[in-house]
Write a structure and sequence with these properties.
binds calcium ion, eight-stranded parallel sheet, 3 domains, Oligo-1,6-glucosidase, domain 2, 16 helices, six-stranded antiparallel sheet, alpha/beta, TIM Barrel, binds alpha-D-glucopyranose, Immunoglobulin-like
């Protein structure tokens, strides 16, 4: 593995293992399938893959309820397959990043089975237990992120246990040193196998208020999502003590050569809070920016999130950008609302901002969310809130490899775990052949990024631009502009030569009097030859 540079300058590709490639015809993607598609990922030009959980799980929440942190879910393969994947990926200069879930385990994990067996059990204090209030109600007012109280009464021992997510996902007690030690061992187990790093689930939330104080109610100044949740989550997530744990993990990651990376799911909605998770270059190397993901697709809004992030992220820190993942509607359906021009502008920003891009599988061909029937749903959130669009299955459907029965994902006639979307409308095989496709556009962007130090490491400076346009410079000689409006515009701050445009081949076009952009066109320009 190369030095630190790989994760700062490289591109991470997120694979939802159930949906990437099925190698044995059971309709479920698996690790051998990922190995079979490594040549594609190398062709695309990515530097690492991040796989959603592949560990043993009863799948109450699609692998995010772990029953064994050091063994592989049989439907995906086994430890031998992971070793092969790591080795085959490494041959192609691709690192392998796994997902770790330290906030909670499955209720079927042996730790929890023991914990709930009696108040005196060895693992009792590995979870968060509290007595009912005198009237029998839960110990405090905390709410689960998935709805309803965050507490479930355990009849046998007469106490409530905490779960910030499903009742099948009991929260671990991070005040207990034995829990901390157990996770150190889990990290080592995988780091020793050659895993390049971890995406850390709920990285901002694992430590809870020791006194289990009630969360305050929203005030009129709180944003809508706080009101929708019904309370300000100040005591059950984002506690200051979480930073001690992150520092401990970073120190552990740093004992490896090269240092392993920690990419946190820091699900906070303001940039200032996100910035805290970098510490003094002694916590996470990369903290996901959900303010960006949830911003409206408007020039002023995006520019302001990026500007604030550039100010807040410590100098030795490094931003990370993403436009889709397994928990939010895909960028093609969200920001782009089905418009290929908008999609390309979004992808152009993802790959040219200062920081590490994380590209969600299928976004490179513009896969939209897949419309599903109630009977097809797998996600507990989708089932619970149907027909409200809170479920996450639409963005998790199988990759479109080709316009064939099974879509190249599974064998013809097999029933895939979630239905395939419209594979005829867009798929890898067709787009590879078409030089003007979004897939080839993304591949071109990745190659350009690789060739230009400005795009990999250059500083970000916003450039003056007309309303509806977001323009910025990277390093000394590279500038980018996105026209996120319905009007043609001219960006006078940009001169030089067009390197890539989202709309048509303008390669080499000279810009002497300002960059002209059609509605919803974006471009990268070089100012080297002016
Ligand atoms: C994270 C995961 C999400 C999961 C939740 C609970 O937010 O990304 O998919 O449901 O944690 O583990
Ligand atoms: Ca399979």
């Amino acid at each position: 593995m190369p030095s630190e540079k790989w994760w700062r300058e490289g591109i991470i590709y997120q694979i939802y293992p159930r949906s990437f490639q099925d190698s044995n015809g059971d309709g479920i993607g698996d690790l051998r399938g990922v190995i079979d598609r490594l040549d594609y990922l190398q062709w695309l030009g990515v530097d690492a893959i991040w796989l959603n959980p592949i560990t043993v799980s009863p799948d109450a929440d699609a692998g995010y309820d772990v029953a064994d942190y050091c063994a592989v879910q049989p439907v995906f393969g086994d430890l031998g397959t992971v070793d092969r994947l790591i080795a085959e990926a490494a041959k192609r200069d691709i690192g392998t990043v796994l997902d770790i879930v330290p906030n909670h385990s499955s209720d079927r994990h042996p730790w929890f089975i023991d914990a709930r067996s009696s108040r005196a059990s060895a693992h009792r204090d590995w979870y968060v237990w509290a007595d009912p209030k005198p009237d029998g109600s839960p110990p405090n007012n905390w709410l689960s992120a998935f709805g309803g109280p965050a507490w479930t009464l355990d009849a046998l021992t007469g106490q409530y246990y905490l779960h910030n997510f499903l009742p099948e996902q009991p929260d671990l007690n991070w005040w207990n040193p034995a829990v901390r030690d157990a996770f150190d061992d889990i990290y080592r187990f995988w780091f020793d196998r050659g895993v390049a790093g971890f995406r850390i689930d709920v990285a901002h939330g694992i430590v809870k208020d020791k006194e289990l104080r009630d969360n305050p109610l929203p005030t009129k100044d709180d944003p809508p999502w706080v009101h929708a949740h019904g309370q300000r989550s100040v005591y059950n997530v984002e506690r200051p003590e979480v930073h001690d744990v992150l520092r401990r993990w970073r120190a552990l990651a740093n004992t490896y050569d090269p240092p392993r990376i920690l990419l946190g799911e820091t699900y906070v909605r303001d940039v200032r809070s996100m910035g805290l998770f970098y510490g003094k270059d002694d916590e996470l190397q990369l903290a996901f920016n959900f303010t960006y993901v949830h911003a409206p697709f408007e020039a002023a809004a995006l520019a302001s999130v990026v500007d604030e992030s550039e100010t807040i992220i410590p100098l030795d820190g490094w931003p990370v950008w993403t436009v889709s993942n397994h928990d939010v509607s895909r960028v093609m359906s969200r920001w782009a609302v089905g418009d290929e021009r908008k999609l390309r502008c979004a992808l152009l920003s993802l790959l040219t901002l200062r920081g590490t891009p994380v590209l969600y599988y299928g976004d490179e061909i513009g896969m939209p969310d897949t419309r599903l029937r109630k009977a097809d749903l797998q996600d507990p959130l989708g089932k619970r809130y149907w027909p409200a669009p809170r479920g996450r299955d639409p963005e998790r459907t199988p990759m479109h490899w080709s316009d064939t029965p099974g879509g190249g994902f599974t064998k013809a006639g097999a029933r895939s775990w979630l239905p395939l979307g419209d594979v005829a409308a867009r798929n890898v095989a067709d787009q590879r052949r078409d030089p003007s496709s979004t897939l080839n556009f993304v591949r071109g962007l990745i190659a350009t990024r690789r060739q230009r130090p400005d795009l990999r490491t250059g500083a970000y400076h916003q450039l003056p631009a007309p309303a509806g346009v977001w323009a910025w410079q990277r390093g000394r000689e590279t500038s980018i502009a996105l026209n996120l409006s319905d009007e043609p515009v001219s960006v006078v701050a940009i001169r030089g030569t067009v390197l890539i445009s989202t709309m048509r081949s303008r390669d080499g076009e000279r810009i002497d009097r300002g960059l002209e952009l059609a509605p919803w066109e974006g471009a990268i320009c070089s100012s080297a030859s002016t």
